[in-house]
Amino acid sequence: MKTGLAALGGIVVAALGAGAGVAFSASATPASLASAAPVGSVPVTERQLTDPRTVEIALTVGGDTSVSSPASGLVTTWSCAAGLELVSGQGSLSVDGVQTLNLATTVPLWRDLELGTTGPDVTALQTELARLGQSVPVDGTVGSATLDATVDLFAIAGDPAPDRDVIRAARVLWLPGETVTVSTCDSSTGGVVSAGDPVATLTGGLTGAVVARLPVGAVPGARNLEIDDLTVPVGDEGRVTSPEALATISGSDSFLQAVRGAESSIQGRLALAEPVTVSSVPPGSLYDLDGQAACVLGDGIPTAVQVVGSELGQTFVTFETPTSPSLVALSPETGPACR
User: Fewer CB atoms < 10 Å away: N or C end of the chain?
Assistant: First the structure.
C-alpha cells in the first residue's frame, strides 16, 4: 500500500512539475507577442529644425589701452580691480575727494564746456548723454539741457552738487568704450597722481570674430551665432563684422572669461536664423548611404533624401521630391537605386 501511495505521489509530483514548467513557459512569452508580426514600415513625421552646430570662434582682440586721471591730487576713491568693468555714466574715481564721471565719448573732453560752447567735443558729449537716457539735443552747442543732463549724471555717479554752469574736463574720466574691462590697475586709493597719469590699463577691445571651422553638411540658409544667451548674425563665411554684433559678443561671459584667461577663442553654436521643416525617419530606413545622400523606400518607392541631422534615435532628412511619403520601410538591406 505504501509503495502504491509513493508511486502515486511521484506521478502527482511529476505532473505538477510538468504543469509548473508549462505555466512558466507560457508566462515568459505571452501569446499576443508571440503571434505579433514584425513591423515593416513606420510613419514619416515632420518637425522644425534650426540645425545647431557647436563651433569654435576665433577672436581678434586689439591692443591694450590706458585710462588716465583727468585731475592731479590724492586718489581718495578708485574702484579698480583686474577683470572689473568700468561703465560710462557711472563714477569710479575720486581725486582730492572730488568725484569724477565716467564718460565714453568719440572725442575726449579736452576743455571746460560752458553755456554756448560749440564744437565736435560738444557733439560727442551730447551723443553719449542721449545714449545714457538724458533728454538733450545733439546740436553741437552747450545749452541748458546739456548742463542739466550732466548734473543729473553726476548725481547718479555720487555727486549731487557739481558745478551747474560749467562742465569741467578735470571732472570727466574718459573711457574708450561704453563698457571696458580692466586688465591692471596702475594706481590705487591713497596714491598721488598728476593729470594724464594712467590709472588703469584696459583689455583690448574685440575687433573681429570668425567661426574657425565651418561645419560640414549643414543645412543651407542664413545663420546666427549663439554665444551664452546672446545671438548675433554671422556671414556666409562665419565672420562677424558689424560693430554692434562685436559689441554684443564683448559683453558675453564667455568673452570676458577668455580675456581673463588670455584665450584666443570661445565656444558657440551656429544655428539657422529661421527654422526649416525636416522629416524624421528611423536610421534603419536608410540604405545606399553616401555622405549626406541616402535612399529610403517611401510608400514603396525608392526615394532620394539628404541627411541633415540626428537626435535620440531619429534621423532628420529632406526629401528630394515635391512631397514627402507617408511611410518608410524599415531595415531594407538592399533596395533599388533612387538616384
Answer: N
Lookup: cell for 155: 548725481
Length of the chain (residues): 339
Q: Which amino acid is at 224?
A: N
Q: Which residues contact 258 (CB under 8 A, 6 or more apart)?
A: 59, 264, 265, 266
Choose between 122 and 300: higher pLDDT: 122
Helix (H, G, I), strand (E, B) or coil at 131: helix
Identity of the residue numbered 325: P
Mean pLDDT rounded to a whole number for the chain: 85
Here the cell at position 292 is 549626406
| Packing angle of the helix pair 144-157, 120-131 (nearest 10 deg) | 50
What residues contact 239, with CB distance under 8 A and at least 6 apart?
208, 209, 210, 211
Residues 6 or more apart whose Cβ sits within 8 Å of residue 308: 49, 51, 217, 219, 278, 292, 316, 317, 318
- pLDDT tens by residue, 153-179: 999 888 876 788 999 999 999 998 888
> What average pLDDT score do residues 326-339 get?
83
Q: In whole angstroms, what is the distance from residue 207 CA to residue 209 CA?
A: 7
In the structure grid, which three cell numbers stand for residue 2, read together?
Answer: 505504501
Residue 46 has pLDDT above 80, yes or no: yes
Residue with cell 548611404: 289
233-265 residue pLDDT tens:
998 889 998 888 988 898 788 988 887 777 899
Evaluate whether 309 touches 270 at the Cβ level (below 8 Å): no
Q: What are the distances in angstroms from CA 7 to CA 19, 65, 140?
A: 18, 105, 120
**Sequential DSSP letters for 9-26:** HHHHHHHHHHHHHHHHHH
**Res 111 pLDDT > 50:** yes
